[in-house]
Write a structure and sequence with these properties.
This protein has helices spanning 21-32, 48-55, 65-71, 84-91, 110-117, 148-158, 172-180, 182-199, 204-225, 229-236, 242-252, 255-275; strands at residues 14-17, 41-43, 60-61, 74-77, 100-103, 122-126, 136-142, 162-166. An 8-stranded mixed beta sheet has the order 3-2-1-4-5-6-7-8, sandwiched between helices. The longest helix is centred in the last third of the chain and has 22 residues, at 204-225. By secondary structure, it is α/β, with parallel strands linked by helices.
Length: 276
């Protein structure tokens, strides 16, 4: 890495290999937050629909991934895990250490990414689907040659679509089980809460809105107050009241254990898949 210039935050160009919904969410977040103009972002969509999606907010469109790499200082691989090896190997001659490489492909390890690219200025990033609404929970891990300054560039980019933390790659299977799969658990909980509201006599639309807003508000309280979730729960549950009666039913059903088991099962599945 000696002699490789750092990424210049105010001038660098960003390219996406893969033009799906995640790439679109990241690009939109970066542009709308003012981190960089769309004129410094490029991609090479494979369909007219995806081309239109990126052009609608000013992203530069190329005909090939090679052109994207040549035009970019930071290259984000946002392709399906099963094709990322072939894509990286195809572009390998253009992937010099002057370029900071990023992967958001689930389950693909840094050691493989670095081997395919033939250098280790790589950062593995794992966002989740709420990136689409600017509320992602993202974790990143730096490759051997990626610098702290490189990490700051990527934290700045992904901070535009939510919150980002840095962690050792050994935690990524657990991250998958929690924040990667977690939105689905919460959607299931919202659906069940709404069904409970309907069972108790509420109109479906009102029940759905109340359930969604309740989850949103509770999450915001957990983040903004800094209180332990157990303390926040106790603050709501007055002696002999309605909330403790509902909590009692949840405890009888093993609610907490079921959520813990779901995270552990998803983490194990992630580990199995990445090993295969």
């Amino acid at each position: 890495m000696a002699g490789v210039a750092p990424i210049q935050m105010d001038t660098f160009k960003l390219g996406f290999i893969g033009s799906g919904k995640m790439a679109e969410s990241i690009a939109k977040g970066v542009v709308h937050s003012g981190i960089m103009p769309a004129s410094r972002i490029c991609t090479a969509p494979r369909s007219s629909g995806r081309c239109d999606a990126f052009e609608s907010f000013g992203v530069k469109i190329f005909q090939s991934n090679r052109q994207v790499v040549e035009d970019s200082d930071v290259v984000v691989f946002s392709v399906k895990p099963q094709v990322v090896e072939g894509v990286v190997l195809e572009l390998r001659p253009q992937l010099t250490e002057k370029k900071l490489l990023v992967s958001v492909a689930a389950g693909v390890k840094l050691k493989d990414l670095q081997e395919w690219a033939d250098h280790s200025r790589f950062i593995r990033v794992m966002p989740n689907t709420p990136a689409a609404v600017g509320k992602a929970a993202t974790v990143m891990s730096l490759g051997k040659s990626a610098t702290e300054e490189d990490g700051e560039v990527i934290a700045n980019l992904f901070g535009a679509i939510g919150k980002i933390w840095k962690a050792d790659e050994k935690y990524f299977d657990a991250v998958t089980g929690l924040s990667g799969s977690g939105p689905a658990y919460i959607f299931l909980a919202i659906e069940a809460l709404a069904d409970g509201g309907v069972a108790a006599g509420l109109p479906r639309e009102l029940a759905q809105n109340l359930a969604s807003q309740t989850v949103l508000g509770a999450a915001e309280m957990s983040i903004s107050t800094g209180k332990h979730p157990g303390q926040l729960k106790d603050d709501v549950a007055s002696p002999g009241g309605t909330t403790i009666a509902g909590i009692h039913e949840l405890e009888k059903g093993g609610f907490r254990g079921i959520l813990i088991n779901a995270v552990v099962a998803a983490a194990k599945r992630s580990k199995d898949l990445s090993a295969s």
